[in-house]
Amino acid sequence: MKNSAFAWSVRRELWENRAVWLAPIGTAVLAVLAFLVTVPALQRRVDALSTSTDMEAAHLAVHAPYGAVAIVGFLIAFVMSVFYCAETLQGERRDRSILFWKSLPVSDTTAVLAKAAVPLFVVPVVVFLSAAGAQLLMALVSALVLIGDDAGRALLWANVQPFQGVVTMAYIVALLALWHAPIYGWLLLVSAWARRAVLLWAVVPLLAIAAIERIAFGSLRFVGYLQHLAIGWVHRGLAFTDEVSGMSPLMDALVPGRLLLTPSLWIGLAFAALCLFGAVRLRRYREPIG
User: Fold this and answer.
1) d(CA 27, CA 259)
2) Selection from 9, 121, 138, 170 nearest residue 69 by Cα
3) Among candidate residues 271, 283, 272, 278, the one with its CA nearest the CA of residue 111
4) Is the distance from CB of 151 to CB of 50 less than 8 angstroms?
5) Cα dist. 211→25, 207, 217, 221, 227 in Å?
């Protein structure tokens, strides 16, 4: 029964917040359409690159559209997850729908965990499937265009590497979800507490802590931690080298062992768990707004 309640709670979130999963899919569709516009010039571009002695430029030129699909998908996922977490718990109090949902046999814990599952699981899965599907479709179209050009196809597969790209994308999507879990947990906590302007209430205390630290101690360690929380996953979860394109081959760039040994990851996950616990308690006792 509990599993069924949790699954239906997640479905309810997706029904009420369709943008969180439609936006990544729409972005991938637009990326494919934009790529199709460039297809007529693909043969000419590959011919020029196949005779180039600058391997880094060739790699970037061939791989750039595929990398752009993934990067834009990651950004869209983060932005949609931030706004979803900031809105979801406050929204149900503002429109008073919380009274209806509380009348159902679904606990506050199940309801909050279902909301947390959206940015931590559902959105990453949707981004992965849509971006990976877009990349594979782009590679298939490119292969069909270059079907009579052995050298061009060799250049394409040497730089695109579909299988390695899909594995790398799955790893990065999971990495981002885990690394940004404290951000989502904090926003859910503030959303459960604030009556309005959730993002403002979420940001102002952080700015106040940074200002107090600067005035009292003359340091900016807290700002450094926030920066680490936002982009530290790049250095802790991926291995950069001086090889072509600035990164080691796709599969070699993944360092899950180093990531799992990073204390800040586990501290962040513990903080996220505390925030979710607080959000459950607040949802249980907070009244509708207005």
Assistant:
1) 29
2) 138
3) 283
4) yes
5) 40, 6, 10, 11, 15
* pTM, 2 dp: 0.89
> Of 207, 176, 202, 226, which is closest to residue 90 (Cα–Cα)?
202
**Span of 54-63, 104-113, 233-242 with lowest mean pLDDT:** 54-63
Under 8 Å between Cβ of 69 and 34: no
Where are the chain's structural domains? 2-285
**Residue whose entry in the numeric block shows the structure tokens 């009274």:** 99
Residue-wise pLDDT for 115-170, tens only, equals 999 999 999 999 999 999 998 898 888 888 777 666 666 767 766 777 788 888 89
Q: Which amino acid is at 142?
A: S
Q: Please state, in angstroms and rounded to a whole number, the distance separating the CA atoms of residues 53 and 265.
A: 42
Cα dihedral 98→16→9→128 (10° resolution): -140
What digits encode the pLDDT tens for the residues 265-285? 999 999 999 999 999 999 988
Q: Which residues pair with 240 in a beta bridge?
A: 247
Residues, the chain, total?
290
Query: DSSP class of residue 286?
Result: P
